[in-house]
Design a protein that fits this description.
The protein is built from 6 helices and 3 strands. By secondary structure, the chain is an alpha+beta fold. It has 3 domains: 27 residues; 90 residues, no CATH class; 34 residues. It has a 3-stranded antiparallel sheet with strand order 1-2-3. A hairpin with a 6-residue loop joins β1 and β2. α5 runs antiparallel to α6.
Length: 157
């Protein structure tokens, strides 16, 4: 192989590597948790929310959320994004579930959900659509009476 061909191949490989490095953030390789990017990626657009999906594993592996205070969670992830439901909202949903013959366990789950939301014992951060686009995903963070995280779950809905 001639000297010219070797240099041409090396230059081509270097150019390809530089191109890949420049495109990595756009290709979904930006997976390291970044608090500021997380906060900016509120549920304003699907692309923004997908940023959170890419960072989720790093967040859960690098930060011990259980045991953190509510203030530390807000500092790390921003304010809660779920709605705070009223007693009237809960009553309306429970009546609808009963009217439509839903099982008691589903009714109990909704009562628990509304109660935790209303008392501030649960925060939800939206992660965007699930893989099959059938539902959305959320990071749910539960607090005890002292506003300390007791449980963290990734859930649909």
């Amino acid at each position: 192989m001639s000297y010219y061909m070797k240099n041409k191949r090396i230059i081509l490989w270097i150019a390809l590597a530089v191109l890949i490095l420049l495109l990595m953030p756009f290709l979904g390789f930006d997976r390291q948790f970044n608090s500021e990017k997380w906060k900016r990626a509120r549920a304003t657009s699907q692309d923004n929310v997908r940023v959170r999906q890419r960072m989720l594993n790093d967040l859960l592996n690098e930060y011990v959320l259980v045991g953190m205070s509510k203030g530390q969670i807000i500092e790390l992830l921003g304010d809660r994004e779920d709605s705070v439901y009223s007693q009237e909202d809960e009553d309306r949903m429970v009546k609808w579930l009963i009217k439509n013959g839903k099982p008691q366990e589903q009714i109990d789950a909704h009562i628990q959900f509304y109660g935790e939301s209303r008392t501030g014992r649960k925060f939800r951060y939206y992660l965007g659509p699930s893989a099959g686009y059938q539902d959305t995903l959320g990071l749910d963070i539960y607090f005890d009476d002292n506003n300390v995280v007791t449980r963290v779950e990734v859930t649909p809905g």
